[in-house]
Amino acid sequence: MHLLDNKLIQKLSILGLIAVISFFMYYRLGSVMFNADAHFWYQRTFGFMNAIQKGDWADTNQNPKPGVTVMWMSGITIESFLTLYEKIYHFRPQLYTFDTFKYINFVAEFPLATLALIFLITFYLFTKKLLGKPTAFFSLILLGFQPFFIGVSRYFHGDGTLIVFMNLSAITLLLYLCLNRKTIFLILSGIFGGLAFLAKTQAIFLIPFTLLCLFIDNLLTNKKIILQKLIPHLLIWFAFFSLTIFIIYPAMWVKPIQTIQNMLSEGMLVADVGKNGGTGSVSIYFKAIPKISTFLIYLAFPLGIFAVFAKWRKTNFNTNKVFLYIFSFVFFYFLQMCLVFQKSERYLLPLFPFVALFGGYGLNYILENAKIAKYKTTLTLGLFVLSFAIMLYNTPHYTALAEASPWGAVYVDAAEYLNQKPNAVDLKVVASPKEHTFRPFFKGTTYGKGETLPNNTSPDYLVVAGKEYIPEKYNYCIFEHDVVFRSKVYWKIYSCK
Known about the structure:
A five-stranded mixed beta sheet has the order 2-1-3-5-4, covered by helices on one side. Strand 4 and strand 5 (488-495) form a beta hairpin. Helix 4 packs antiparallel against helix 5 and helix 5 crosses helix 16. The mean pLDDT is 92. The protein has 20 helices and five strands. It has helices spanning 7-26, 38-54, 68-89, 98-131, 133-144, 147-153, 159-180, 183-199, 206-222, 227-248, 251-254, 256-272, 283-292, 295-310, 317-339, 352-367, 370-373, 376-393, 400-403, 411-419, and strands at 428-432, 445-448, 461-465, 478-485, 488-495. It is α/β, with parallel strands linked by helices.
């Protein structure tokens, strides 16, 4: 018997794995990055919570994304922290104050990171029910040690909650269709789907996906389409999907039509012409794959596809259905993202859990081979060590390789360098681009390159992205320091004294 076949060892391995993932999830949370559009999320969240406290339900419609799940979770923790702070110190701190920002940012990101961690645990438990312990274990390693996935899960942003709730909706639907037909799983799928849509409207994908899965299941079960059996299941799912949106989103209580129109208009705008400099080129996704995922997961994924076909005849019917539905999710969601005009590396993240699941199945298939099985413990330990090393290498700037300086990656290191100056609090710094992602971490005063300093004075320092040219009006500034992470220059600091 192999060491990993021991039940106690299995439990300890899972607990240890979750503990290590938890470390990476919470390490320097709130103090390592201020993602480029987090200031919008603070504005929306403060507006949302203010509307809740006043009972102005219509004003909870802060953005058509709509981001409601983020505003609820982070809004409650931020408000709780500020209330407690006020009771202790008798005043509420300003948001972008150097001494307190890291604490406010921590409580904003904490519920989002915790949600992602709970999802990873749930993902393991549900996958174990569907495909067994080994596949669930390897899938958890592949997913839990993805730097980009962990990094975006820590953003004060809607993408992390979208990933969680979209995948929970899909996997609970699979539990209903392929495991035990308990209606509770169909209801949960609808609820999670509603929460996903309240995170970002691209979760509307779940409606045709659910319809497709129910249609295929109806056909496979009955050898033909029986609408009397299909429609009730679809209505149950859609009823709880809609009910969740209505209950969780107060704007729906008073202006449901207008609120729905706003959300759908946002979705159509993003799909048709894009926003914020979005691009219509599909090539962005193919170029992004080696940046946003480790080589382990994108090598294991085709291995999983191969394993599914290799074991198709020997595998039970329900397991084959699981992979049919999962592949449908991966294929059609990727197709949707290709057809939508606005594209971003982050938009592929909802695929990660199911891609990891395929990968976990493929790894387990390899280790089941009689010639390799005797090395199962050694190879599993090797996979963990390699995954851990990759994660450690990308710590703490998990998303730096993929999104770099435009999203504020490694900006905090530039701020910390200048904070070591003896008169840091009196320094004036021009930062470019996205100076707002630098400002909260710097003791002194921060300006954008387009701003005019008081009395037309000169800045003390200039911080620019590694590949960006110095603004012509500051060409007298002298290079002082490269801000480097893992051998790559992210920022250059110039002295303008």
